Amino acid sequence: MSEWTTAGLWLAVIASGIYHGINPGMGWPLAVSAGLLDRRAGELFRALGLLATGHFVAMIGILLPFGAMLTLIAWERQIRIAAGLIVVAAGIYLLINRRHPRVLVRIPPAQLALWSFAAATVHGAGLMLVPIYLGLCQTGERDVGHQAASTLAAGNLITAIAVSMVHTAAMIASGGVIAIAVYRWLGPKFISQSWFNLDIVWAVSLILVGGIGIASIGFAR
Is 212 a residue whose pLDDT tops 60? Predict the structure, then answer.
């Protein structure tokens, strides 16, 4: 059962990455724009690389603090509940406040890595991974006396990096497929004619993920 749960959590990491990649708000239209402006496919892939870098840094920046807090095993339950509530609160906020953050407009298009980091941060992309990540960080043994804090911290660090890498790879792969398709075959008109807004879906999904994360604590006990 525990193996199935772990596999399910990793599938959730990949699925959320694909979901983020499909969302235009995570930047794939900017990669298309870079390729079209320079008339070189290489610029499109360079832009995707910068977007991936920024997204990865945003993910690891959110996950590492929670991983560090998990070294306080005695407070694990409270930490996971608090994390779930934060994710739910972020979803409710985005559901109420539908305006796009002005900070993204002020970042020059040439600074794609910085833009990707800011976009992932302000949209709560990293927060969506927190309940999943905390589930993966659970240890099989609850006996604190037999676990060195340094070993646990190192394990959480590796998990945080792995989750961020797998998620970012899924994100940039799904977004990259759309960007390449638009660049090579569909053309820029596809963006203007088929633009879809996932803001409401994004906010609701944050609420659901946070709620599921809190509910899973009860099932795990």
Answer: yes
What distance lies between CA 147 and its chain's CA centroid? 29
Residues 6+ positions from 130 with CB-CB distance below 8 Å: 62, 63, 66, 83, 86, 87, 213
Count of all residues that appear for the chain in the document? 221
What's the CA gap between 211 and 75, in Å, rounded? 19
Q: Is 137 helix (H, G, I), strand (E, B) or coil?
A: coil
Place of tokens 């990293």: 126
Residue 102 CB partners (closer than 8 Å, separation 6+): none
Rounded Cα distance between 126 and 63, Å, is 7
DSSP reduced 3-state for 182 = helix
For 127-156, what is each residue's pLDDT tens digit?
778 777 777 766 444 444 334 444 445 567
